Amino acid sequence: MSIMEKQPLIAIARAWIQLSRIPFHSVGVMPFLLGTVLAWKMDGVFSLPLFLLGVTAVILIMLSTYYTGEYCDIVEDKLSASLGRNAFSGGSQVVVKGLLPYEHAKIASYAALGLTVATGLVIQLRYNTGALTIPLGVVGIVSGLFYSKMPIRWVAKGVGEVLIGLCYGWLPVAVAYYLQTGTIATIIHFISLPIACTIFNVILINEFPDHPADVIAKKSNLLVRLGKARGALLYIAMTVAGWVTFLLSVLQGLPGVALVYYAPVFAVSFILVIMMGRKSYLNRKMLQVMCGLTIATNLGTSLAYIVTIWTKGL
Fold first, then answer.
1. SS (H, E, C) 194-247
2. Which listed residue, 145, 211, 286, 304, has the most CB atoms within 10 A of its CB?
3. 3-state DSSP assignment of residue 49
């Protein structure tokens, strides 16, 4: 009897929801919303169909990425479950616990990928959004698909974290703006930098609870290569880089009130720097808090921009 036959439908549905990691979609959707708001406030342009299709493509790429990670990282995730994972690391554990077969995660990954391609073609062919539409989409697809998947497996090359910074920082803001306007404004490069810094830190700190398992499994991500002490220093450096680049974006023309909206984010990230300096990541419970707060700084950074531009323009 298969796994699916042993479970009631409601349990299977819950497993798929857990596997899809829906709360984590926010880190991709928020920057896309920011790019759309920028297009509306800067250029007076907004197409609801393009926004909905674009958000759909972003979510599908994330789903494909998450599903791929679930069946490609089974060994690490199984080890992590017994060596100190928390709610933000070690995958969803759906495949590891046998709630769904790994083959289903694999099929779902390719299905999401196929739907992403179809959505991209509809955007390009139906709305003629510009020559960069498909290439930008390919960057997102290739980066996501091969983040965990061989033969490239970016996460084991020490560059996966950087690609996440690109694909959850600059790319969704730029793509959202481009779909609406057919151009990429210079301010986008500055606005996306602190978002990229914070999402880089999200990935980096989520590697801390998985570190023992990743070392055993020889998953050579950035933290395995650096070690926890130097990884903590990198986290602090990227946090400071986020502060500096946010200020830089204001100097590039963003309304000064953005600093007011950003103040709570700065306060939380400053506390995180202190916690990192004190090696609070060595405490399992404190590390989980730090993982959650790091995601909050990423979402808060995007939100500070959105509120500023929505209310004050640019």
1. HHHHHHHHHHHHHHHHHHHHHHHCCCCCHHHHHCHHHHHHHHHHHHHHHHHHHH
2. 304
3. helix
Band of residue 1 on the pLDDT scale cut at 50, 70, 90: very low
Q: Are 155 and 107 in contact (CB under 8 A)?
A: no
Distance CA 210, CA 207 (A): 5
CA dihedral sign of residues 75, 76, 81, 83 = positive
Which position has the token pair 């998450």?
A: 66
- Provide Rg for the chain, Cα atoms: 20
What is this structure's pTM?
0.92
SS3 assignment, position 53: helix
Are 192 and 169 contacting, i.e. CB atoms less than 8 angstroms apart?
Answer: yes
Cβ contact 120:130 at 8 Å: no
First-residue to last-residue Cα distance in the chain = 60
87-103 residues labelled b (16+ CB within 10 A) or e (exposed): ebbbbbbbbbeebbebe
- As given in the structure block, the two tokens for residue 137 are 């989409």
Q: What is the pLDDT of residue 49?
A: 97
Res 4 pLDDT > 60: no
Q: Which residues of 130-163 are buried (b: 16+ CB within 10 A; e: fewer)?
A: bebbeebbebbbebbbbbbbeebbbbbeeebbbb
DSSP-H helix ranges across the chain:
3-6, 9-20, 26-43, 48-72, 74-82, 102-127, 133-145, 160-165, 171-181, 186-216, 222-226, 228-251, 258-277, 284-312
Spatial CB neighbours of 99, under 8 Å, sequence gap ≥ 6: 3, 7, 11, 15, 18, 19
Among 270, 266, 277, which Cα is nearest to 301's?
266
- Give the span between the Cα atoms of 114 and 31, in whole angstroms: 23
Identify the CA nearest to 87 among candidates 205, 185, 194. Answer: 205
